[in-house]
Write a structure and sequence with these properties.
The structure is a homodimer.
Chain A: H1 9-15, H2 26-44, H3 52-63, H4 71-78, H5 82-94, E1 98-102, E2 110-114, H6 116-122, H7 128-135, H8 139-159, H9 167-179
Antiparallel strand pairs in A: 1-2
The structure holds a DNA duplex (30 and 30 nucleotides).
DNA sequence: TGCATAAAGTATCGAGGCGAAACCAATTTG
DNA sequence: CAAATTGGTTTCGCCTCGATACTTTATGCA
């Protein structure tokens, strides 16, 4: 069957690759899987009249502490520009999923809250299906995945340049004026990336580890 | 690099935390990480004048067997429409990264090959950085990640509906006329998702397990 | 054989996302 | 108190992508 006569250049290219043995090459596999999963996850989120960016913003707003629920917070978190986020937020508002209220502390900022409708929407979050799938796996595997993916994300954030969506940093920065923590002082990295919350002050709670502390 | 080197991420973060007792909920964590990693990976791919879709197409074309390197194959793989892919392919061609040649077997289809330029480009694939990061992890973790992510993807493909980017199926379908394998006969799932190639006929080689078999 | 239908690709159109830049208002800094 | 910063919004234009229509070639059915 001749599938392989006159073979493709990719084959030859692979041969001089030192890692190209029979080994599955987990690293490459993970990279590819991440890539494809990202695509699928993205596609998954075109539902209920929202787009991926809107879902992600909504998700963030649902989990961020009150001082982080601002357009700027979303922008930092999503790594998008303020202008773009302004549109996203407007879209969510016009759909009745969130409500903007001007802050009385700083009249420039506006605080965002999910409406009841928004809560209902987030309850149907399409990425929830990933959760249930993973929930079906044995706990050890899941834990290892959290660990590995977390480290991957931390590295990637670092790689992506000086402004690595600094979620936690941004949150703490926002929280700072009220909580009395200095802007200048170093702030623990995002708990989601696997880094521990070094300062233990609960006031410093940040979106990513908000889940496990009371605000 | 980052500070996260030797430490156990999941547990240490919530020592004095009242809510810490409740399970870390790995599933939710994984879902969130996948989501965010997808976003970052996407962002990562706006480089060298290509966009994510173009990178993914190029990546596919670099790994697909000769019968799968067609616009339709790319469309199936990426889960996009033919029209969209036609544009993507045109873009890649105009950049000199691929070459289209009409098939003499079926004059409707056109075969696609990477040019030397394309090979050079793919060598600088930005998602390669994920590979190197994961390469730095211990092998057991990496293996578990491959396993977990692979299963996740398999489930997700199933979830996404009847036409789950059926990469492998599509490949085999394309390969079929030449290889003499029936369209009707059940085809082993994609090797990338962790499912083994059950029929061992090398003719059935498909993009996703092309890497670990001799073609 | 011939006609109908399906399939591969392409071209065109329009909606929508997103970044850039200009802009406004409020706050901080010197 | 002016100057510089910062949070947010608006406008503009590029670009991606799906939908649709169309062309060409294959296939299937009488």
């Amino acid at each position: 069957m001749t599938v392989n006569d006159g073979q493709s250049p990719s084959e030859t290219a692979k041969n001089d690759d030192p890692m190209a043995g029979e080994t599955p090459d987990h690293a490459a596999r993970v990279a590819e899987l991440i890539d494809r999963l990202g695509r699928m996850t993205r596609e998954l989120q075109y539902v209920d009249g929202l787009n991926p960016a809107q879902w992600e913003a909504l998700r963030y707003l649902n989990r961020a502490n009150r001082y982080s629920r601002t357009p700027g917070g979303v922008a930092d978190f999503l790594g998008a520009t303020k202008g773009t986020i302004s549109q996203t937020v407007s879209a969510l508002e016009s759909k009745g999923l969130i409500a903007r209220t001007p802050s009385d502390r700083d009249k420039r900022v506006c605080l965002i809250d999910l409406t009841a409708e928004g809560e209902r929407m987030i309850a149907r979050d399409p990425v929830r299906c990933i959760e249930t799938i993973v929930g079906g796996m044995d706990d050890r595997t899941a834990a290892l995945m959290v660990d590995g993916l977390g480290r991957l994300m931390a590295s990637l954030q670092f790689e992506l340049g000086s402004k690595p969506f600094g979620v936690c940093a941004a949150c703490c920065r926002h929280l700072a004026p009220e909580a009395g923590c200095k802007k200048s002082e170093a702030v623990p990295k995002c708990g989601m990336t696997g880094e521990p919350l070094q300062g233990d002050a609960p006031q410093r709670i940040c979106v990513n580890y908000l889940g496990d502390a009371a605000e």
